[in-house]
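Minutes, project check-in
Item: structure for the 268-residue chain
Input as provided by the requester:
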Amino acid sequence: MPAGSVIRLSSPATQESWELSVLFEDEQLLAFDKPARLLVSPDLNDPQRPDLMRMLHDSIAQGATWAKQRSLAYVANAHRLDFETSGVLFLAKTKPALVAVTNQLGANQVTRAYVTLTRGMPEQSEFTVDAPIGPQTRQPGLMRIDTQGGKKALTEFKVLEQFRGFTLLQCRPLTDRTHQIRVHLRSVGLHIVGDEAYAGSPLFLSQLKSSYRAKFNETERPLMGRVALHSERIEITHPTTGLPLFLTAEWPKDFRVTLKYLRMFSGL
């Protein structure tokens, strides 16, 4: 499965399908460009929702052509991306490779860079948030800043581009906590576009273009209706060669289209 090829997965139960672009593959590792709105692993609160790992395992068990061509019998996710987050996702094709990569993640030895679009504009072009994170007690599945019992969490942010009321940021999490980027940004008054769980509302063209008029009898669809977070780059040490492995995933279409309209109607 060379880089640039595509794996197609589907869920007959929900009649959904996905195309996953392969970013890298060798005997130890497999990396995808994960599309938004796809779970990586099962959701305990919604076990019927399709997830990537279950569909991969089902395809292998059913003898899918792409799996048979490489005698693939084992695959496991080395890390996770949230349901609505897109971008680079590493999988392991052997148990030793899985252990090696997860150990790197656990020791914070993996370099990761995300891009996000927020409502609000930071005062500085570069800033760091160092604040421990723990689960919200009243809303299971969500996280919060917890200075008493939370786990250490550190994220570096850099402004890539600013608009009227919005900011495009690069985010470098130096620790690996659930919803880390989302919680850290909210803690400094920046809300990721489309992240309604953390007070970030979707972005509509009508909010940018004063002359916008919806077509008759049609409901306006958001430019960015999901959490505007994309895993752009990851660098790990290859578990066999010991050499750095650097992968990137292009910005998805919804990011590109949203930025086009921001530059057109909300540029500084």
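Outcome recorded: The first strand starts at residue 6 and ends at 11.
No further action items on this chain.
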